[in-house]
Amino acid sequence: MKRLYLFFILVLLTITTDNYSSEIDASKYLKERVVEKKLKNGITLLMMDRGFSSTLAFHISFRVGSADESYNTCGAAHILEHMLFKGTSTLGTKDYKKEKPILDRIEAIGETIDRLRLENPNNSKINSLEAELSELEKKQDELIISSPYDMLYTSNGGVGFNASTSKDMTGYYIQLPSDRIELWARIESDRLKNPVFREYYRERDNIIEERLMRYHSSSDGFLYEAFFAAAFSAHPYRHPAIGWESNIKYMSINDINGFYNTYYIPSRMTITIIGKQNTEETYNIIKKYFEPIRSKPEPGEIKVIEPEQRGEKRVDVYFKSKPSIMIGWKKPAAPAKDDYVFDIISSILGSGKSSRLYKSLVIDKKTASNLYTWSGAPGSRYDNLFIIYAAPIDGVSVENLEKEIYSEMERFRKEINQSDIDKAINLSESSYIFSLDSNSGIAWQLSYYQTALKDWRYMINYLDNLKRISVNDIQTVYDKYIRDNNKTVAVLHDERGGR
Hints:
- There is one protein chain.
- By secondary structure, the protein is α+β, with helices and mostly antiparallel strands.
- It is built from 18 helices and 13 strands.
- It has helices spanning 26-33, 76-83, 96-119, 125-141, 148-155, 181-193, 200-216, 219-231, 245-250, 253-263, 279-290, 337-350, 356-364, 398-415, 418-430, 439-452, 462-467, 471-481; strands at residues 12-16, 21-25, 35-38, 44-49, 55-62, 159-165, 170-177, 269-275, 313-319, 324-331, 368-377, 384-392, 487-494.
- The strands form three sheets. The chain has a six-stranded mixed sheet with strand order 3-4-8-5-7-6, with helices on both faces. A five-stranded mixed sheet has the order 9-13-10-12-11, with helices on both faces.
- The radius of gyration is 25 Å and the shape is globular.
- Mean pLDDT is 92; it is low at 1-24.
């Protein structure tokens, strides 16, 4: 996962600026062009003036994701992301004065229904309350404007309006003409200062359907969920970012409000703006609209530390699908040196068709139909996993494929040489070469590293750190972490044919 965010800045590539187009060092380019400001309330602002086109990519990101949830609030970060598209007291409503009492009643009825369902699903009051809730929602429909931000941004030339929630962070994105920057600042600051969580219970039902589609109707989703729940005993990385079904079902508006007030705070917020602009003018606009957002106490990092694993963990799940397997070993997160080493290991073993595992098991031996590796899942803020995913071809058992994987890994441990490392570094240099060729690509990368790792400059020294890795480093790290008592295995069996 993390590799999807890496490498791009570490290459020599053509970057177009206002006055010239030439091949320059990307790290130097970023050092010279990124402007960082800190607002008085704690918001970090990253800007870069680049390109001919008078367009800007805007990212707002918060250092909050499913890792920050408790067992009572699993899924809150994702639900909150959805609710922040519903508007404010002035946007998304035809008459908020008339809508407000309906909203209040909807909240009260919804909370009561949830409580009764938990206490006694057969309570006779539930049906009448559900009928009342339905009537209230119909009345509200007459007063609300659906998708208010989509309509407003589209009419002003906006593209790519979206958001995402992960284990580590939540982000909101849009690209707009540069002369719409003040419009964007006014809209987004209002969205954060005065959100109204309308259509809450309908949206909650939609998210339950989304979860069913993502995890219960997908063999990979089903396997991933079981794997991470087994790999982490205590740390919230064990929870799916979308939340567990029962949590979503009973998540209250009060829960969402509390989560919002705790984590959507200036000290956890980064604004990234990339494209043709006068950065001083941009800073003044951002300061005008976002600095009035009140600072709040920092809740701190999560207190749960995953205990040391002292034995192999194994889980078997059954699904109407062809079998597959996930194998993972716990490892440190960035910026630990061992994390860089695992990026190299992952590249050599399972990055592309020329990688060792893929070439041996998919191309040569034809025991696997698919295989890949990744380092840094399911998040990067806390210690994570190096993972191998593989699916056997028809006629090969998943048990035999697992043995083949271990055999190839031991062979890798013995045969690793400097040319393997050099090849991985060269691949890193050429990977994602076009990511810096767009405003949105740069905005995404800067926003991610500043939010997840608290410093966008992590990117600049990445390649230098990779080049310091030796054969001895790889063998030492391999021996330290690739051990049975540090391993988690999840096997998906085809329930149509038994084991």
